[in-house]
Amino acid sequence: MEKTLVLVKPDAFKAHHTGDIIKIYEQNGLSLLAMRMMKMTPEVAAKHYAEHIGRPYYAELETFMTSGPIVAMVLAGEGAIQKVRDLNGKTDPKEAAEGTIRKLYAASKGENAVHASDSPESAAREIHIFFNETEIFD
């Protein structure tokens, strides 16, 4: 069973879409193993988005991700990483397929409702930024 990290970003949380987003994942066979609501700090943002530090858009990304509550969760299932990415849709909601989370709930390419790990290596690293092993119920 593959695990992945998902973050419901401040825009989707503020618009009250968290429950709808979780429901989409669960209805598509993914299991919720851990969940926490929190406010991302600049330090957590720097750890999570380390590969983006120094890029022209990083300051805006950090400001957005620390602007309000997020919901972090660990989802699991067969092929969970790709399944979640397919359910999320393309980063730009204008290009996302109908019925995907970003098509339904994202405001823009920058405020795009959700984050998901893009590989098993990223998932392993990202999950442990937000959760320790005692908080993951698998």
Distance between the termini: 9 Å
DSSP E strands, number: 4
Q: What letter string, H or E per element, gives the SSE order?
A: EHHEHHEHHEH
- Structural class, from helix and strand content? alpha+beta
Supply Rg: 14 Å
Low-confidence stretches: none
Chain-averaged pLDDT: 97
Q: In percent, how much strand structure appears in the residues?
A: 15-25%
| Helical run tally | 7
Q: What is the general shape?
A: globular
Spatially, the strands of the biggest sheet line up as 2-3-1-4
Major sheet summary line: 4 strands, antiparallel
Helix content: 25-40%
Kindly describe this structure.
By secondary structure, the protein is an alpha+beta fold. It contains seven helices and four strands; from the N terminus they run βααβααβααβα. The protein has helices at residues 10-14, 18-27, 42-48, 58-65, 80-88, 101-105, 120-130; strands spanning 2-8, 31-39, 69-77, 114-116. Strands 2-3-1-4 form a four-stranded antiparallel sheet. The longest helix is centred in the last third of the chain and has 11 residues, at 120-130. It starts with a strand and ends in an 8-residue tail after the last helix. The model has no long low-confidence stretch (mean pLDDT 97).
